[in-house]
Write a structure and sequence with these properties.
Blueprint lengths: L2 E5 L12 H15 L3 E6 L19 H12 L3 E5 L10 H6 L2 E3 L3 E5 L2 E6 L9 H11 L1 H9 L2 H17 L16 H10 L7 E4 L5 E5 L5 E5 L7 E5 L4 E5 L8
Parallel strand pairs: 1-2, 2-3, 3-4, 6-7, 7-9
Antiparallel strand pairs: 1-10, 5-6, 8-9, 10-11
Helix pairs in contact: 1-2
Length: 254
């Protein structure tokens, strides 16, 4: 039985990450190391720091990553791509050119007889009014069309600098440490969601940039996947067991 992998939050192209090329190559080496073991790969959002497609133009760069995704799908590995709050402006290129299966909303799916609830995690349980407003604006079709009226150079500069500002507003560019069950929005959201969806075995999210693996009931387990900026973490499910792992160069993967 082949393994199913989950990862998120590489933020490729970020102006706040000094080791961009090294970071992309490390991600590609990981994907290459699992290509013969993987039944599917789930990318749970924000793999790019900013991604916006125009009719005849896509963002410059990322050729190693996009090429590896294409190789995986060409070889029969399902690659599922969940849009996050940094890379939601995709309009067909990733599906047509790379063969990924795109998800714009949280998705419930059965994998090896277990039920998974998968989402990037942005907007789930977060009471921040400013973030809610920005998220609504980013998803608005009229606003998306207005962005695509801007010349690609200006549009990408606008998006990448917005993303950089979003990252460096945190101390040292890092996310807030784990706040505890009562203060983490995703945990609170998941506990509430569980009340009406008792059949779900695994809840898996990105977005938060922390590693978290917690049992919320005798049946339901919740994971937050960390990131591929400094942590290089991922989850692997072999049909019986779920592991939250760190990719270390040169080590074999499960």
């Amino acid at each position: 039985m082949k393994t199913v992998y989950f990862l998120s939050d590489a933020h490729l192209g970020s102006l706040a990450i000094p080791h961009q090329r090294m970071q992309e190559r490390r991600l590609v080496r990981f994907l290459d190391s699992i290509k013969n073991k993987a039944a599917a790969v789930y990318l749970l959002g924000d793999m790019f720091d900013f991604w916006n497609e125009y009719k005849y133009v896509v963002p410059k760069g990322y050729t190693r990553f996009l090429g590896k995704l294409s190789e995986l799908t060409d070889n029969g590995v399902e690659v599922h791509y969940f849009t996050g709050n940094h890379d939601l402006w995709t309009y067909g290129y990733l599906e047509k050119e790379c063969g990924v299966i795109l998800h714009r909303q949280p998705t419930t799916i059965e994998i090896y007889d277990r039920v998974f609830y998968l989402a990037h995690g942005d907007g789930l349980g977060d009471p921040d009014a400013k973030f809610k407003f920005l998220r609504k604006m980013f998803h608005n079709k009229a606003c998306q069309r207005m962005l695509n009226f801007v010349h690609p150079w200006w549009g990408m500069q606008l998006g990448l600098n917005w993303a950089k500002h979003s990252r460096i507003k945190h101390a040292d560019g890092r996310e807030t440490p784990y706040l505890g069950e009562d203060r983490e929005h995703l945990i609170r959201y998941t506990k509430e969601y569980m009340q009406t969806h008792p059949n779900i075995d695994y809840y898996i999210y990105g977005h938060r940039h922390i590693e978290l693996d917690i049992m919320l009931s005798r049946k339901s387990r919740m994971l937050i996947l960390g990131d591929w900026i400094t942590q290089f973490t991922y989850a692997a499910f072999d049909g019986q067991h779920m592991f939250l792992e760190t990719y270390i160069e040169g080590e074999s993967q499960p």
